[in-house]
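Retry 2 of 3 after timeout on previous attempt. Resubmitting structure tokens to design endpoint.
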């Protein structure tokens, strides 16, 4: 978010617990402190005309106090309160009449009786704290071992494709929607592995996905950019999975492939500027780059990856690598989306980001 904010003339101060954080390396200044530290959040607010966040796990009561004190804060803490609790989020969308899997929200860890009563197979999601695939477990039956946390239980549904739709909403209620993308997830970690834009679905279905995603964001009433995850079932039904109140992994491709990328759009939305065009300039594919090994970050194969046509590599500047940690992403643009996806995998195969001494 920092580079587009700077292009638009803003000074940027960020809050992050890690000195010399990725955002702090680019911003005008950094407040070093935890996202759950009210004092650190207050120090940030004292230096900012507009506050926003790019993760869900921020101290909610501290944000409410800042909003009540008159600080301009988007998305509003009331939106974050719905999003932070996956059980409340699912119930909220059901109350709004938006389609989703059958569910039950539990205030305690699920028991064998809970699982038997719900019926399996079931997807268990931690109600609080999960992200990037963490806090999700598939339970085949009542004999399975659940995570020992308060949980959202959702009926497992057959999925033909998982779709992502990025939606921007301004302070005036104006909305801008990017075309749906198609996402593939790692079956073990549940992290996003790769996506193609636009999704390989019929135009009428693309439009239905855009409308459903906009309805979800309208229901929340938030301001900023939102990542809406949808399930497409084999019989053509669209279901709302989850919504993230921030720029999202499924929107990274917009940096190369859209007129306005999701990060500039978020800055525009939260500062009251007009929203930009979401028109796709080129088909694209994006893959995540994750760490291997522990220790100081070491990148190998960058030259080979960048030698491939249409490849853009984004390394996040994280000093420490570890297995499974998201260290960056790369995007390939090409008129042929299948060629873009194949080249994205080839570029990732050429790269290795590992922890170890240089």
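Retry 2 succeeded. Sequence:
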């Amino acid at each position: 978010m920092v580079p587009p904010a700077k292009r638009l003339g803003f000074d940027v101060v960020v809050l992050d617990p890690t000195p010399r954080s990725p955002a702090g390396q680019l911003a005008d200044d950094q407040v070093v402190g935890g996202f759950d530290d009210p004092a650190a959040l207050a120090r940030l607010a004292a230096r900012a005309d507009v506050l926003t966040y790019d993760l869900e796990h921020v101290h909610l009561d501290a944000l409410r106090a800042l909003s009540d004190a008159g600080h301009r804060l988007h998305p509003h803490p009331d939106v974050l309160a719905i999003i932070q609790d996956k059980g409340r989020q699912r119930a909220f969308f059901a109350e709004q009449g938006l389609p989703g899997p059958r569910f039950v929200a539990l205030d305690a860890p699920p028991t064998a009786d809970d699982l038997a009563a719900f019926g399996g197979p079931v997807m268990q999601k931690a109600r609080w704290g999960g992200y990037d695939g963490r806090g999700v477990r598939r339970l085949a039956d009542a004999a399975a071992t659940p995570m020992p946390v308060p949980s959202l239980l959702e009926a497992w549904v057959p999925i033909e494709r998982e779709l992502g739709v990025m939606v921007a909403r301004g302070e005036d209620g104006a909305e801008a929607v990017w075309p749906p993308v198609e996402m593939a997830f790692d079956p073990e970690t549940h992290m996003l592995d790769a996506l193609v834009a636009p999704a390989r679905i019929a135009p009428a279905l693309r439009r239905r996905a855009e409308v459903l995603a906009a309805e979800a964001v309208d229901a929340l009433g938030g301001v900023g950019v939102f990542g809406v995850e949808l399930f497409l079932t084999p019989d053509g039904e669209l279901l709302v999975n989850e919504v993230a109140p921030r720029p999202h992994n499924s929107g990274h491709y917009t940096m190369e492939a859209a007129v306005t990328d999701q990060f500039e759009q978020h800055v525009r939305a939260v500062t009251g500027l007009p929203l930009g065009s979401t028109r796709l300039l080129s088909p694209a594919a994006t893959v995540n780059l994750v760490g291997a090994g522990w220790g100081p970050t070491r990148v190998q194969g960058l030259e080979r990856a960048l030698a491939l046509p249409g490849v853009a590599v984004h390394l996040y500047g994280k000093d420490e690598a570890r297995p499974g940690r998201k260290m960056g992403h790369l995007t390939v643009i090409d008129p042929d989306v299948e060629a873009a996806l194949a080249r994205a995998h080839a570029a990732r195969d050429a790269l290795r980001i590992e922890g170890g001494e240089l």
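Attempt log closed. The longest helix spans residues 203-220.
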